[in-house]
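Why do we care about 3D structure at all? Because function follows from shape, and shape follows, mostly, from sequence. That is the central idea of this module. The next example makes it concrete: a single protein chain, its amino acid sequence, and then its structure expressed as tokens.
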Amino acid sequence: GALHLANTGAPLSAAGAASLLALRVSSKDADAAIVGRFGVGFSAVVPVADRVEIRSRTATLVFDRGETEQAIAELGTGFSLRDEAVPLLRLAWLGQAPPAGGFDTEIVLWPREGVNTDELLADIAEQACDRLLELPSLSEITVGDSSVTVVRAGGLIRFESATAMPGAGLVWREAVTGGVRWLRPRAGLPEHPEVLRTPTPTDIEISVPARVIARLPVTPDRRHLMPGVDVGVVAPGYLALVLALDPADRPALVPRGMGRNPVDGRLLAAIGDELRSNAWVPPASGDADLVPARTLIIADLSDDLAACLGPVLGSLAHPGVSGPVARAGLIAVGARAIGLADIAEALAGIDRPDRWWADLYEALAPLVGTAGDAEELGALPVPRVDGRRNLGARGLGLAPPGVRASWAPMVAPDAVHPLLERLGAHRVGIGELVAHEGLAAALADVADNGADAEVRALGDEVLALLAADPDAALAPVVAAELLLPDSDGELVHVDELLLPDSPLAAALGDDLPFALVDAAVADRYGSSALRRAGVGWGFLTISAQWPTAPDHDLDDEDRWWATLPEPPAAIVAVRDLDLVPDDRWSEALTLLAGDPVTAPLLADRDGYTAWWLRTNARIDGRALGSYRSPDAPAFAGIVDPLAHPAAAALTGVLLGEAVSDAASAAALLTNLGDRNRVVEPGAAVRAYGEVVAALGRRDVDPEALDALLDGRPGVRVLDGSVVEAAVVI
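And the structure:
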């Protein structure tokens, strides 16, 4: 029925025997890495045994409660224990039995009555792996038929047991600092509370999520620390354990709570100080760990967002420690959780490429689920197309893909992302961009102050927009400011440029007063975009509202202005008519009538364009106003029809069915007096009647008519002949 415990190692010495008999700490070298520095606890045999033998290679000691009681009785001194049990470990006798073969020392216990040795062995087996952890000099423990061996390598401790010894399945991570060892199993701590171990367990419970084994002075019963001992000295070793773990697992080691007892409270406080002031938090970018007190955490940080923010926010924690549990641990030691508003503020001074911002917006988008989230990002930097940066997306435009418009407050094309629309940016079409009020000012400013390269770049932006939208066009006031390169590479206003294949070039002849636009520019953007930008294709027009004087650089404008009874409400007129050679008016009329912009002006008899053409344009050497439209037969035989395909469109230019001005009256009177014309009497009467009626209506000024007549023309009489006016009755 005896219980045998044997070990290999140093045999019992005289000093060891004295320690056993005195029940004090054994006298081994404090620096020796051997079992027994603080004693395995020989007094633990008292509750379970009445007889103990220590059989060693050097000597055998026997402790026996019965023999001790008999020895006391034999003293004959009347000494009495007053019914108390005699002490077991005060007297020892030399024995003769050697230790079991292969061992240096064997302890044999004869259990007291009521002690179940099977349960005792089971308890010993339960603690075998703990003892191997606590006592590094031990390498193997066998209990009955079960054996467990400890293996230490690379900071890990594991156990090998063929019989599934309790606790053998755990693998422990170990960090050693001086005489302090901190350990944590990979699978987490056992459910039962941890206690301070010095190296064997004390009665001091600790709430630290790790096991500590430290050489701290303890009371003789090894249950408590000696008075004045500061358990905080073991805290630096805890940091070493934290650093030994995978970075994502480190926050789990941050202890919580106030402590279960004063020792535990002091230990938690010391560990908290150690973790708070040292670097151990994994960073989102780089290799250098972060100090918690200077660490920023974004809740549930994604890898994509970490890739963007990590390099610019050097104190940002890794995504692996941004979950709720890890985050709470980091905050407990001084880390600061930041939200969307903090992110926006932290990025205010960051300079990054436009594409980087688009990646950031993509990573932020999953975090913006409500209007409140969007409001928090109200100051998020947004790069603009002009190179500046907005604090916030509100008020910025989002152009279609590939579109650039530096004159408008637009998001840079490479930074455009759907998130910005949720943050207040708005979609802008090409038509809105070319009509933006800032375009004319930008063109004027770059023309006055910019380098040639800047002028060309802005021109390219405008043309690219027009090429992308066939319905977009520049307003005349904007086109007047646009400069583009001509065929010689010189920058010229678009109203001085023609397309290489322009029909106006053909109409104006060889001595062309316009420059031709650069052929490469025409090839790149197409003639349609260039025409909508204001480059000449056909005749150009000018327009003005509420003009006050003939100051629009139109040929003979002051003469036309003098024919008006009052200033017009608006002027829309074809310019450069005076540049057409007399032999090119046939081509010019075709061009004017075929252009939807200029064609309506040919029907406005009072407008500048029709007036100038009537007065100055020549076909076959005659003023255009001296012809009639082929479909206006009222003055057939008197006025020649214009033989031109566009004659029907020239209703405001040619002589119509009635006399409306001095020029038409003069043309009729001159032709009526032409003896070479055959005029029917009725037609002559009607024609003279129209002139008289016009004079009566005051549509024709007699003095103006007199000035237009070359001398006194003959008069057509009823027989069809022409006579001098003086003989007419």
